[in-house]
Design goal:
224 residues; alpha+beta; Arc Repressor Mutant, subunit A; Alpha-Beta Plaits; four-stranded antiparallel beta sheet; 5 helices; 25% helix
Length: 224
């Protein structure tokens, strides 16, 4: 895999504008980006030399060219050897119906994007150009109902929200197994007279009676 090219915000702005409209002039690019036209020209030339910009392509509407039906063909090639897949790839790329060709992993070896005039044209293409080849073991067809353009294509944005592992320890008394401060745990002692079975404090205006009142003692008898 080739190494990525370092791009600054000016480069990214130029790439975004050119992907939206490749016909944008250097003067228009310079005005949008905020640099001199000569600087913008040098930037685009450097992006071409580095391989970031591969070229400028013209987008066409297949339906207006008589190819209103598009499909994806999943193709298995057996045996999957270079001497067989080389000629297969060259032939598929040369077909006027082919729009894109992808080499895949998994049970299917190739994905072919085609544009044809209709279902009968698609059937002819599959039978004449795919299943008739001895190296093609299986073809599955998927019709495309609708597709959308995506982009622009820009480098991934660095994720600045990843938690960092600094190795710091929690403050004392906050980690696992820490003991609560005195008086906060479940085994803390209660003050005298406040626990279960304790008697409430005496009220001086309402004395508490704990049993029957004893009879007053009789006065001693005197001898005559």
């Amino acid at each position: 895999m080739p190494e990525s090219v370092a791009l600054d915000p000016v480069d990214l702005r130029i790439l975004r504008l050119l992907q939206n409209d490749a016909r944008t002039t250097y003067r228009e690019l310079a005005a949008e980006v905020g640099v001199a036209p000569s600087t913008c020209l040098d930037r685009v030339a450097r992006l071409r030399r580095s391989g970031v910009i591969l070229g400028h392509r013209l987008r066409l509407d297949p339906a207006l060219l008589g190819r209103g039906l598009e499909a994806l063909l999943l193709v298995q090639v057996r045996p999957h050897r270079r001497e067989l897949i080389g000629p297969f790839v060259e032939r598929i790329r040369a077909l006027p119906e082919s729009r894109a060709l992808f080499h895949l992993t998994g049970p299917d070896d190739y994905l072919v994007h085609v544009a044809v005039a209709g279902t009968s044209d698609l059937q002819r293409l599959v039978l004449d150009e795919f299943t008739s080849r001895r190296e093609v073991a299986r073809v599955e067809t998927r019709l495309i109902f609708q597709q959308w353009e995506c982009g622009p294509l820009l480098p991934p944005t660095p994720d600045t929200h990843q938690p960092s592992n600094t190795g710091e320890h929690p403050p004392p008394g906050t980690g696992m197994g820490a003991h609560p401060p005195p008086g906060k745990g479940t085994s803390a002692h209660t003050p005298p007279g406040t626990g279960a079975g304790a008697h409430p404090p005496a009220d001086p205006h309402h004395p508490v009676r704990t049993g029957p009142r004893a009879a007053p003692a009789a006065a001693p008898e005197t001898m005559p």
